[in-house]
Amino acid sequence: MLFIAEFRRSYNCCGSDVKVWDANIDGRTVRCAKIHNATSLTKTGTDVWLRLVNVRRLDIEDPQRTLQTVPKQLYFELPNLESLTVTWTQIRSLPPSVFQLPLTTLHLQRNQIKSLDGLEQVTRLTVLDVSHNMLETLPDVFVHLTSLEVLNVSGNRIAELRTASGQRGV
Questions:
Q1: Are strands 127-129 and 150-152 parallel, antiparallel or unpaired?
Q2: What pairing do the DSSP bridges indicate for beta strands 18-25 and 28-35?
């Protein structure tokens, strides 16, 4: 997978908490955003969601570990989201609505995720990183994720893996 990015136009809103820019990725212009403080997504009276219109790649960091769920606005305000990164949060599971987005890349490392229920709906997913969470088992849905090229489950509590036929493996 070739990833070439040329960054154009970058601006801040809401102080340094949110950065939005356009990038040329594989020959197409893609609106990207990085949120350095997850609480800015839930504050009333800000224009954060207006600034995120047409974003296709979103990174959310939560160094204060205040985020307990993905904001519900994500599903309504960013219906074309292709790449989502949510790191360093208190999130234990993802609402099913997240899996209805047209995601191809999902990075959920260093959270508190215990379940991936609904993952089978993201059939276009090529990259899934759920490293350093609280997973003890993996759902038997990977047979549905035929586009998946990269899977990182390191740093979890997974004791055994099952093969596609349901047999136990290492």
A1: parallel
A2: antiparallel
CATH number at residue 35: 3.80.10.10
Q: What is the pLDDT of residue 42?
A: 75
Q: Give pLDDT, residue 10.
A: 43
Q: How many CB atoms lie within 10 A of CB 73?
A: 13
Tell me the sheet residues that pair with 28. Answer: 25
Residues of the chain with pLDDT under 70: 1-16, 45, 162-170
| Integer Cα distance of 23 and 9 in angstroms | 8
Q: Find the domain containing 10 and state its range.
A: 5-169
Q: How far is CA 120 from CA 3, 127, 144, in A?
A: 26, 14, 6
Q: What is the pLDDT of residue 153?
A: 94
Q: Which residues are CB-neighbours of 105 under 8 A, at least 6 positions away?
A: 57, 82, 83, 84, 85, 125, 126, 127
What's the structural domain count of the chain?
1
Task: Please give the pLDDT value at position 122.
Answer: 92
Burial class (CB in 10 A: 0-12, 13-18, 19+), 163: exposed
